[in-house]
Amino acid sequence: MATLQEQLDEAIAARHAWKTGRARTTFRHGDRVIEYSTEGMKQLDSYIAQLRRQISGVRTGRARVTYAVPD
User: Fold this and answer.
1) CB 3.0–4.6 Å: which of 6, 8, 11, 47 could bond 2 by disulfide?
2) Is residue 24 one of the residues assigned to a domain?
3) 42 is a domain residue
C-alpha cells in the first residue's frame, strides 16, 4: 500500500499531465468511449485536498463544543 504522500504525488502528477494535455481526454474500448470532463478534474482536486488534509493532520467534520456554566 502506498503512503499518503505517495498517493498525493501520484494525484498531482496525474492532474499535471491532464492539464498539460499529456494525458488522454478520451478513451475508446470497442464501441464504448470514455471522456474525461471538468467534473472529473473537480473530483481529482477534491481528492488532492483530502490527501493534503490527512497528511497535515487537520481534522475534518464537526468538533464537539462544551460550555462551562458557573453555578
Assistant:
1) 6
2) yes
3) yes
Q: What percent of the chain shows pLDDT beyond 90?
A: 8
Stretch 9-17: mean pLDDT, rounded?
86
Structural domains in the chain (count): 1
Using alpha carbons, select from 6, 33, 49 the residue that is nearest to residue 24.
Answer: 33
Q: 27: domain CATH number?
A: 3.30.1580
Is pLDDT of 52 > 90?
A: yes
For residue 35, the surrounding DSSP H or E stretch is strand 32-35
Domain that holds residue 25: 4-56
For residue 5, the surrounding DSSP H or E stretch is helix 4-19
